[in-house]
Known about the structure:
Immunoglobulin-like; alpha+beta
Amino acid sequence: xxxxxxxxxxxxxxxxxxxxxxxxxxxxxxxxxxxxxxxxxxxxxxxxxxxxxxxxxxxxxxxxxxxxxxxxxxxxxxxxxxxxxxxxxxxxxxxxxxxxxxxxxxxxxxxxxxxxxxxxxxxxxxxxxxxxxxxxxxxxxxxxxxxxxxxxxxxxxxxxxxxxxxxxxxxxxxxxxxxxxxxxxxxxxxxxxxxxxxxxxxxxxxxxxxxxxxxxxxxxxxxxxxxxxxxxxxxxxxxxxxxxxxxxxxxxxxxxxxxxxxxxxxxxxxxxxxxxxxxxxxxxxxxxxxxxxxxxxxxxxxxxxxxxxxxxxxxxxxxxxxxxxxxxx
Length: 329
């Protein structure tokens, strides 16, 4: 397969708005294969791609050629993209780019060029294999070598030969990874099994968290409610006792509703103590109601209304050398 891109003359022709064959050793036609004006931005990216390719910076060249094609839509750039992918040993990507090039060019390329592209594609078909992927849980996200390729099940996915890492992810299960070897011409089937994992439901409306249907104890708000009730009783009791003591002192020093000036501040203190005591007992009552509701009433409602699939859930997992949480919110 040829591995050289445009000559300086060809690059100048393309940047001037004329599309010509992609290789320097191709004979230049007497008339351009097609004519299409390029924007200044497309010309800039194409020129950068040619320069980076000549410097063997193939990853950079690939980015520039792709951007030039996005901006121009010129089929020829797809051929350059395919050649660059070949240099990066992305044989599956190169094959796809050449197929797109032929489809987009139609009858606008010479028979000699078409034969050369067909020959290149035949060589590439010996460097790729086909893989069908299924998972034990439907609709799992599939990635190959950290690039997402869709959702399972997938059939006849073309992958470059070599060692490939396939990962399946699902929001309710720990990820599954499988490494496979693909030889040219292979047609293999891969199944990824998600391991069962215990799910801890964090359902706020429900009374109990549970694991596989087994109760893990009262709802956290039971403890919050009764804790607030205890604290409220303590505050209310302490300040209530202080208020009673202050009132007793005022009763001794005051005659009726007339108190000495020295004891007038005690009246303000009595009011403050009584208010705090009242608030404390109010908090105690509210906390007791909340705790009792989630202890006695909410469990009955949870029993009558099965858990909805839309409720949030968190699943802890331990897989290989890693651990983590997956869930639905």
